[in-house]
Amino acid sequence: MSEYGTLQDRVQCKQLLNKVMAPEQTIEFFKNGMNLGWSGFTPAGYPKVVPIALADHVEKNNLQGKLKFNLFIGASVGAETEDRWATLDMIDRRWPYQTGKNIAAGINAGRIRMGDKHLSLFAQDLGYGFYTKDSESGKLDLAIIEVSAIKEDGSIVPTSSCGVIPEILMICDRIILEVNTGQPSFEGIHDLLTPLTPPNRQIFGITHAGERIGSTSIPCDPSKVIAVVESKLRDQGRAFAEQDDTSEAIANHIIDFFTTEVKAGRLPKNLLPIQSGVGSIANAVIGGLAKGPFKNLTVYTEVLQDTMLDLFDSGKLDAASSCSLSLSASPGFPRFFENMDKYFDKITLRPLSISNAPEPIRRLGCIAMNTPVEIDIFAHANSTLVGGTRMINGLGGSGDFLRNGFLKMMHTPSSRPSKTDPTGISCVVPHCSHIDHTEHDLDCVITEQGLADLRGLAPKERARRIIEKCAHPDYKAQLTEYLNIAEKDCLARKVGHEPQLWDRAFKMHLNLEKNGTMKLKNWDVKIDLCED
Amino acid sequence: MSEYGTLQDRVQCKQLLNKVMAPEQTIEFFKNGMNLGWSGFTPAGYPKVVPIALADHVEKNNLQGKLKFNLFIGASVGAETEDRWATLDMIDRRWPYQTGKNIAAGINAGRIRMGDKHLSLFAQDLGYGFYTKDSESGKLDLAIIEVSAIKEDGSIVPTSSCGVIPEILMICDRIILEVNTGQPSFEGIHDLLTPLTPPNRQIFGITHAGERIGSTSIPCDPSKVIAVVESKLRDQGRAFAEQDDTSEAIANHIIDFFTTEVKAGRLPKNLLPIQSGVGSIANAVIGGLAKGPFKNLTVYTEVLQDTMLDLFDSGKLDAASSCSLSLSASPGFPRFFENMDKYFDKITLRPLSISNAPEPIRRLGCIAMNTPVEIDIFAHANSTLVGGTRMINGLGGSGDFLRNGFLKMMHTPSSRPSKTDPTGISCVVPHCSHIDHTEHDLDCVITEQGLADLRGLAPKERARRIIEKCAHPDYKAQLTEYLNIAEKDCLARKVGHEPQLWDRAFKMHLNLEKNGTMKLKNWDVKIDLCED
To answer: Entry's SUPFAM superfamilies (chains A, B) (predicted)?
Structure first.
């Protein structure tokens, strides 16, 4: 018996005790080519023992490539599940976000078909049946959902994330429930609502970060549940991203900016609800707020990382709303579980379709902060594809928050090392090699060099401001020279609203490929279109 | 005396009769460098006699370049105002959308600083003071608003559009009102609400296209009104865009698609609220709906054009919500005014911050349809800059609707003529020269060739589908060859999630510049980075 209660305690819908089975017994439910919906969001609350049992089965019986699935999951899940599945060639399609070396390798070598989408749109499109429209049933074939408990009426209580559980339940008639008894129940932390399809979609009437509009469990028809499996495995959350001088400098620029905005009366004294992405810069920003001058803060975001516990402990954070509790396996989750009383009532976990919905994000006026791969001088941002072609993780919710926030900010180091040059990659380029967020979506760009406030600036003014405030000193002159040449050429041809030269806009990227650095000797290019 | 009532009838706040003056008398209020807010949206409901009097003054006194202003207006206004101002060098900055030959010329030659923004964000950012933060007062210096009437309490009744009137009133203390007695009053058609700044922003609880959440006039402090001017000039609306075979073919593909979606149960029988942009394709789509099988339609959009009256007359349209009534000067407006009884109660005009707000657009589940400049094989779209550098009109509300719709569709002819080749410009290209809407935002692309349903497709699948269904036959083989070369190269390097080749992604654009057509002899390129 677990210290957190037995399976019998957690399965209060007694008819479902008949469906209890070992993970291995679920293998027969899986057929090659199935569309699967999993719970889980940015490694938290995902099913574990069933996916692992199936991977073991494939490995033991040499079924690599013979049992392949299409995976629809709120965001990434633990490497012991999706990344291992990728290694065993068990994934055909994967939507809309993933993490792991092997799955990324499969995607970029063309073995796995991945698509990314704004997470809020992924959730609703899944519920509308857009991803399963070409299958015979038009539905997901099988759902695997990790739960804390099954209530008497069959409704389910999620664990550390809500993901797209409501949408999965809308379009799936065969459900496997993994009841996690290896950790305390999360019952009471969630605010759950199944969004109806238009024209009947409800008002999401959240007017402050902690407000609740739903219930603590979500309806689930017990007759659709084909298996109940016990799990004692915990989330293999992201390791804590270390802060460094660069991220501290960025955080300081951001705190200074907030201070100025409060003074000018454009932000309330307790700011507005914070959305902060993942990684070292996000950690530094949250760390900066824990030490900073602002009180009674709120957070409305999609992931809560370890540093958010520090912000709670500082006494400066009143409430946090998120889609998932993405703490590290250690020390994050143990720290949370040992102090649940302190954090529980201040946290609300919501489904992706509500945590990332434009409606509450605009109404609350979130301050959106995310890290791109690169940004260009006109303030377009690449969040997904290195070199414009290689997928890292996916778009995530960056667009949901950047398009709808009160302030829309992106932060990045000004440069990154290439193999041969410590500043060989400039994160400020003439033209992004892939564009996920447009110039119409960003207010501020921040690097360790400074903060460029772009509000109210026309494109050429934006370009000079970004180069001046944000570019690494090794690239300032080079980028200015490009802008000058492009501006002169385009204005002379009377096509100069936003100057670019298509024979050399990507010269920095091509030079990196060829010579291992974005540092150019000059902006000359001889291009022969070979038309003759 | 006008047949539509006297100025005295319209100015019911009697203390403001003291402020009545001739347009020429307002000239003294204008100083060089001022930030001005105007009513108006996509030539409707904009001030006329005051801007024209000021233009006459500049012309008569040779003040060109000596009286320049920053113009903040919901969208474009009549050519007799902003385009004439551009000719007289009276515009320094212009946000966020414009139409007119001279103003576009000024922007692309670098004389006028323009910035475009998603219209819903422009509205709120204007209200937040983001555009006026660097001026001494932090406010707009002067507002010019066309009204139908001034109520007893000083509140104002707009005319044919609502634009950003609420936000202008929030941040402007000196207001000129143009009372238009040259047409019937629009009192009763508007649904007006001033959105409060977060954290106090209201719920916009619209649950069907015709639902009203505000009032028919908007509060205005009479002590801020410095002049009341009578105008009898009417909107110089857009001429009716003729339909042609191409736009009819596109409309037919769209109607067929709707029929399939209704059959599959993914759309209700009366569809969902339609958003349709401007131009000949939009006209053809609305025309197609007037003749088509669907009844009890609704419209939730930002502009209503002449064909919308046909859709009403067909008996198939129950309600239309818009930011403006953008009818043609003739026959549109006379037809509307002569049949006001028939149309008035079915139309709701709302401020931009509500007509274009993500909140109602997602809740209602709009079907968003807009025309881009070009689209690329991975479904990024360029809506604003020809050749990636020359501004046409601006982004408008395309992103508000495409990001938030139930179905997100873009329609374009598959090719356009260049100077020397009737199909010299392919509207499907390997990589857009400017990206306003990303691959994460589009569900369907339609040309006269066909409709590409991209839902659930990974990038390389999308590319093949778009080429197959949408590209002009003159370009199908050429685009496929590019995709094949790029795919082979990128997959070999294991960076092939979304293949591109940066030495030739813009070869079609460069060839157009050099040789007058996007048709290539081959995909070879010799590029010398001139690094040695």
So the answer is: NagB/RpiA/CoA transferase-like
